[in-house]
Write the structure tokens for this entry.
Amino acid sequence: MRLRTALALLCLASALAAQESEVPLGLNLPTAEGLQGWQPALRFTHRFTEPARGHSRDWYGLDGGNFPGLGLDLGIGAVRGLNAQVYRTADDKTVVLALQQQLLAGPHLRLAARVERFDEAVQQATYAFGSVGITGSALQLPVDLVAGSVTLGLVPTWLSRTTTRDQGLVTAGVDFRWRLTDSQMLLGEYYPRPARLAATYERGYAFGYRILTKGHRFTLLVTNVQGTTAHQVLGGDDAGGPRPPGQWALGFNLVRLF
């Protein structure tokens, strides 16, 4: 029995050691990937607030407002598979502090545990769509199922509160990543409407195309959700919730690995 346990631990350590270093970020959802050693990475996100619509008079939404975000991800070399993150987005001046621990990194299955705290630094106020200036936390368990060039992801999530709810809720985001070539990837994410929200709220979607180089990840995306954090995209009610079908807005992510 001891020999079997030792062999299992050795296999797990070997799998983690062989795992490619990567920022655990899809479009908005976390993935079960992770930075190895003490590797740092910068992430820059940008979301346009105006829908692209069907004409170019407003430059497909580029003439409207936007919400940029900037974050630092860092592998913690002292604990294999542990990553730390600090991220700040202009959406309600939200600051996110997070820790993510990779639990399993096999060739076909990856698993991680993530805990984060979010603080909206704007003055607390209540509007028709809900409250801003809120503070809360999120617990997530990103799971990646890998089949060749295709990865299917599930992100079970507990949120301590959302824009319209002071009590916690449980939900789960879904994503897929299809690596077309070594340098190109298609991505998609689905954000269901939490069961505790009224049926008047929409479901959320995001689709993206990513270009990968040795040190950069550039992703162009379209989405009907405005935010980028767990409580913004999975809460289902942030800023009134996802836009109705057809109301797609542009955005992009830029990640720099060092």
Notes: Residues 5-18 have pLDDT under 50 and may be disordered. DSSP finds two helices and 15 strands in the chain. The first strand starts at residue 40 and ends at 48.
